[in-house]
Amino acid sequence: MDVSFLGGPYPQRGVGVVAPFDFALDRELWRWVPDDVSLHLTRTPFVPVEVGLDLARLVSEHETLGDAVRALNAVAPEVVAYACTSGSFVGGVAGERAMCEAMTRAGALPSLTTSGALLAALEELGARRVALVTPYTVSVTESLEAYLAEAGITVTARAFMGLTRHIWKVPYRDVADMARRAARGAADALFVSCTNLPTYDVIPQLEAELRIPVISANQVTMWAALRQLGTRAVGPYQRLIDQAARRGPVLPEEQEGWA
Description:
Layout lengths: L12 E7 L6 H5 L6 E7 L9 H6 L3 H11 L6 E4 L2 H5 L2 H16 L3 E3 H12 L3 E6 L3 H13 L3 E7 L11 H11 L6 E4 L9 H9 L3 E3 H12 L31
Parallel strand pairs: 1-2, 1-3, 3-4, 5-6, 5-7, 7-8
Helix pairs in contact: 3-5, 6-10
């Protein structure tokens, strides 16, 4: 069969993604990515530790990050993103910056983390008062609050689940229930933490219901990485990504394909 008339494949730009070994939401990350960008994912080595502060520190060690970035260099991404919220906030603001510097040294290319992307997204939205939703234990949730406080962000309320494993199995309805509890205060935005927590489809519904921007760990990571490339993430009816959505909430029944 002669396929010369097809003229492809077209050139792809690459985003390198370093994720913890238990990350299970590769497909969710791809949903924010336009067709001309590829994600190149690698994972940190397995360690037999439950989700908590100890695990966050282990999967964010500079040597571990350097090895992961050097592995990604083979496919020449233009930017590298560390897709883990707890692993990037556990060391505070200075620790997050040091992680970016370590990844940049290893790959000689721009680097970012989920927690750094979170601060950039809050700045983009003009949000200084934030409601938190996490699947974490209380100690990990408090570490996130401390990170935000160090960056000058006030946490108005929080809801958390206390999970130490299988976070990717949490259904949307549980995420929505936590968001409703956390959003009772006067928040400028709501943040759903953890890259292993599914959020893509629930964001528009919550923004319409709560009438504030709703951002999530995977969303801000992809938004920041793609912005670094000079392109935009794909996220209809998500205020961080869709400028039209910032003019006012879109009710669920108005969304195309909503059932």
